[in-house]
Design a protein that fits this description.
Length: 771
């Protein structure tokens, strides 16, 4: 079996089982390094138990060879010396080897598969029933809450999963649990677990009987004296002092200073009183302590002094970013209202645009301009509601959600909170995070946001929420309704030149430790990179290419000792190689059956070719190129319209019976959908069926009806900018989109000829070459 090398953590005094969610503290340096390595990679780590808890730097001989594979879910720093880790135990593993590179432990492992787990086996079914019965007896005798125990095992169908869950809940020595974990046979494992539970039940029954007899022979005064003496002896043996009383005193003083609402204050005092009656060595005491400290760490009354100086804020925004007029105007408007109203609920803004246009970085700049703390939470791939709202305290290792944790890290109750990639949030059996965000992002509800862990309301209304997305189409409508959408469009060439010269080039020169007088990148060189190396909506690839130049110059400075370097349009290929984009669509020759369309995607506007051919057949319409359902219907509509005008343009009726017609959109691996290619497909079909050439250097967009009407489409600005980048200077658009032309930058608008269409025949007059 193939082995896998992975970060490894040695556990002291605890053993975990698959199919459980666990929380544990990490303090040793090698274990901290293993957690960091796992979080930076795929979040998987193997844990196994030490044989001797006193060994501080264990080697392979000190560790049991059976452990579990854990996927880390959340890591929270709770103390200067240790962190709290929440993870999901997935599989039992056999550790085949452990290596130590000095900073962390890594291991090779094999999956330990269960045997004898046939659910239809009557013997196994009988063992499962006996296990449930014994466990519920154990819970009843241990006063652990029978209702919660029934809920825990209810609905668990797999015997192995049931065994793992119950074994993880038992309060027995770790070596006893380890013995159970190492058994491969599910039947034998359950039998062993039943024996352990029966033994514990017997011990608990004897303890209860002894306790009852002692209580009968002891009056109240004797009982109190005995318990206090016993507690004092235990403390002396453990070397503990009365720090708990001091801790409680500090908590109460801090609670008095906070002056919270009556209900909240009463709940916290009740929890502190409950903690004071617990034994310091009780597991529940640690849970209660963490809960109280978390609540008192929250910035209930701590706020940043928000900057409402409009000129200063505008200066900071302009220092950090070029353009983005709409975003800057919206922030300055908000500051003006705050200046007048003195108190206003934090706005909720959604920045929508292609990758690389600066959505995340402008949010950081807004925080600086408004003098707010900045916290960021990435929502890409988040599928668990508990990530937002936290886990209830009934779960082992429960911690607050990421919203409350971020507020604690910010240290103020009015930070700028960035929710990144809100369009990529998911949902599964663990809940719907998007629904949990509804309360967070609703100004009318978030003043009483209640985290499942805290179970008390915290006011988020002062927080300034900003979300980012590439598209609004995947954001749930109720969530989108709570946000003010500001669209960030693609950058035009002039904007990219400004950004490169004012921001990107100085930044990369500084990061590569090159002096300003050692490297010069001319404006023509920047334009060369933009047009022939990085055709994109944003500037992310442009920055990469500039960094590429800086690395090569840095290497030359070290090896050749040359003083100055100048990158111009003539020698840029020396640093970046041959041009990546050499096709200019303005030079394309007319062809039969091929037209140029425009589309809008989550990464910006693109141009696409529509190809059509006819071949002998039975009159079928073949659609290829990963078209979506809407685009397929659009193609059928276009075909229906062309058939309706066939007689008018002398297209033989037999061609629709004796030939198959295929429409293809190249780049077949890329999914495509939407109705806006209707007019493009209509013109391609007309060209194919009449044999007349179509001009490919004219781009078009528009939805068509069966009567040939051209209807309004969205995303015109992005589509036009994409066509402009490809060298196209003539674009056909629906008549209804004529007002949208004003949204296109003037520098681009005056170089493109826009033709407005009422019908497909208007497009045919422009596209079809009559020669």
């Amino acid at each position: 079996m193939e082995e896998n090398r992975i970060p490894f953590i040695a556990l002291r005094g605890q053993t975990f089982f698959p199919d459980t969610i666990v929380g544990f503290d990490i303090g040793r340096d090698k274990s901290l390094a293993a957690v960091e390595a796992a979080m930076n990679n795929d979040k998987y780590v193997v844990v196994a138990t030490q044989k001797d808890t006193s060994v501080n730097d264990p080697v392979q001989e000190d560790i049991y060879n059976t452990g579990v594979l854990i996927k880390l879910k959340q890591v929270v720093k709770r103390h200067e010396e240790y962190i709290r880790v929440l993870g999901e135990c997935e599989k039992r593993v056999r550790v085949t080897s452990i290596s130590d590179d000095g900073t962390m432990l890594r291991c090779d492992y094999e999956i330990a598969y269960d045997t004898d787990d046939n659910e239809e086996d009557l013997h196994l079914e009988a063992l499962v029933r006996m296990l449930k019965h014994c466990y519920l007896q154990y819970v009843e005798k241990n006063n652990s809450g029978e209702g919660a125990a029934r809920a825990l095992i209810e609905g668990v169908e797999k015997p192995a999963t049931l065994c793992n869950i119950i074994a993880g809940e038992l309060e027995v020595a770790f070596d006893v649990k380890q013995t159970i974990l190492e058994i491969d046979s599910v039947q034998v494992r359950i039998e062993q677990l039943i024996n352990v539970i029966r033994k514990e039940n017997h011990i608990l029954a004897i303890s209860k009987d002894i306790n009852n007899r002692v209580v009968k022979n002891m009056n109240r005064g004797q009982k109190e004296y005995y318990l206090r003496e016993q507690l004092q002896v235990i403390k002396e043996e453990l070397g503990e002092n009365d720090n708990t009383d001091d801790e409680i005193k500090v908590w109460l003083e801090k609670l008095d200073e906070l002056k919270l609402e009556e209900k909240t204050d009463a709940k916290i005092r009740k929890e502190i009183d409950r903690f004071s009656k617990m034994s310091p060595i009780s597991p529940d005491a640690n849970v209660s302590r963490t809960y109280i400290e978390t609540i008192l760490e929250l910035p209930w009354n701590t706020s940043s002094k928000t900057n409402i100086n409009l000129k200063k804020a505008e200066k900071i925004l302009n220092e950090d970013h070029y353009g983005m007029i709409k975003v800057k105007e919206r922030i300055l408007e908000n500051l003006a209202v705050m200046h007048l109203a003195k108190a206003i609920k934090g706005p909720i803004i959604c920045l929508v645009g292609p990758p690389g246009v600066g959505k995340t970085s402008i949010a950081r700049s807004i925080a600086r301009a408004t003098n707010r703390e900045f916290v960021r939470m990435s929502l890409g791939g988040v599928r668990d509601e508990a990530e937002i709202r936290g886990h209830r305290r009934t779960y082992v290792g429960a911690i607050p959600g990421r919203v409350i944790n971020a507020i604690i890290e910010a240290g103020t109750n009015n930070p700028l909170f960035l929710l990144d990639e809100v369009d990529k949030i998911g949902a599964d059996f663990r809940g719907d995070p998007a629904s949990a965000l509804l309360e967070v992002l609703d100004p009318e509800q978030n003043r009483d946001f209640t985290d499942h862990y805290l179970e008390i309301p915290f006011d988020l209304s002062k927080v300034m929420f900003i979300t980012t997305a590439n598209t609004t189409s995947t954001i749930p409508r109720p969530l989108l309704d709570r946000m003010e959408v500001i669209e960030l469009s693609s950058y035009i060439e002039e904007e990219k030149v400004h950004i490169a010269q004012d921001y990107l080039i100085p930044k990369q020169i500084k990061e590569h430790a090159i002096r300003k007088n050692q490297l010069t990148i001319t404006e023509p060189a920047v334009r060369e990179i933009i047009n022939y190396y990085t055709r994109e909506a944003g500037v992310r690839n442009l920055e990469r290419e500039i960094a590429n130049i800086c690395r090569k110059v840095a290497k030359s400075i070290v090896t050749e000792k040359k003083g100055k370097y100048c990158v111009s349009a003539r020698n840029v290929d020396k640093y970046l190689g041959k041009r990546v984009y050499i096709e200019d669509m303005s030079d394309l020759e007319p062809e039969v059956g091929t037209t140029t369309g425009m589309a809008w995607t989550a990464v910006g506007g693109v141009t696409l070719e529509i190809e059509t051919v006819k071949m002998p057949g039975t009159g079928k319409l073949i659609l290829t190129g990963q078209m979506g359902d809407v685009m397929k219907e659009s193609a059928q509509t276009a075909m229906g319209y062309i058939r309706s005008i066939a007689e008018k343009y002398d297209i033989p009726a037999e061609v629709f019976k004796d030939y198959d017609i295929q429409i293809h959109i190249p780049e077949g691996a890329t999914p495509k959908d939407g109705p806006s290619a209707g007019v493009t497909m209509s013109c391609a079909l007309f060209s194919c069926l009449t044999g007349k050439k179509a001009n490919r250097n004219i781009a078009m967009t528009g939805e068509v009806t069966l009567r040939g009407k051209v209807l309004r489409i969205g995303g015109l600005k992005e589509k036009a900018l994409a066509a402009y980048r490809q060298g196209i200077r003539k674009i056909l658009i629906p008549k209804e989109n004529e007002p949208d032309i004003e949204d296109i930058p003037a520098s681009v608008r005056k170089k493109i000829e826009f033709i407005c269409l009422d019908t497909v025949e208007d497009a045919l007059r422009e596209i079809i070459n009559e020669d």
